[in-house]
Amino acid sequence: MMHNHSSKSKQEIAIHASLPFVLMLFIEMALNFYSAPRNSIFISPYLLSFFTLGLISFIVLWKGEICNGQRKRFTFVLTLLVIFSIGNFLYSVIFTPKHSPAIISNLAAVFLSIIYWRLPKPKEESVYNTMIYCAIGIIAIGFIQYFAIYWFELPSLFNWLRANNFAQILLGILLAGWFLVLAESRLEKFLKILVKLALMVAVLNYIWTAFVLYLLPQQLINYVTVSGYFIIQFCILAMLGWLLLGKNIKNMTAWTIATFMAILYPFINI
């Protein structure tokens, strides 16, 4: 009986943890199919979120004061990143009409997700630390190439909305916090830091989005989607305020609403 209960619990966690990645894949493919110009270059609007989540997760696994049970649950949740990394890579390579300039970032995401599967026990300290260093190096490569594409190779006002750096970083922070809560971690102080960091990034996202919209010609702005976007961002701020000012920093409802609303950010550029 105990075995069945544990197995069911693990299955439920896996289902919940996989939902954001499935949704992210669906949104990026749908938007690319219906909204992107024909034969345009495809770059995932979630890669930066992926690497932000990876960076925070490895900081937790490396320096976080968590017991083996929490570490196992958190690592198990993180292994599901492979859903997005491989799905995004295959879609970029096979189903988009042009070769993606983000191929290195896409590969970095795949290798990063594999590390979660091969991460040794912390008792093997030298090997464990080496894997962590490799992961951080892979994340750095992913960040560098993504920023190079975003700011230098394909700079445009539309990309500054479609692949908004602040919105992606915000999503990565929220995903990290959501996974920590899902894994039943006891890092309340760290979760508070994540909420404060998310609040700061959310404010910067507001400012950046308003600035880019100001630069865009008025006839190119869809005020319905923009209004919806700002309403969603306000809801995210409200959820973060609830987490910070409430008595329960691990309020799953607030984390879930904020995280899944943050996933919707690419719709601003329909």
TrEMBL record:
Organism (species): Pasteurella atlantica
Signal peptide range: none
Superkingdom in the source lineage: Bacteria
The keyword Cell division belongs to this UniProt entry's keyword annotation: no
Key words of the record: Membrane, Transmembrane, Transmembrane helix
Transmembrane segments: 12-35, 41-62, 74-94, 100-119, 131-151, 163-181, 193-214, 220-245, 252-268
Name the UniProt record assigns to this protein: DMT superfamily drug/metabolite transporter
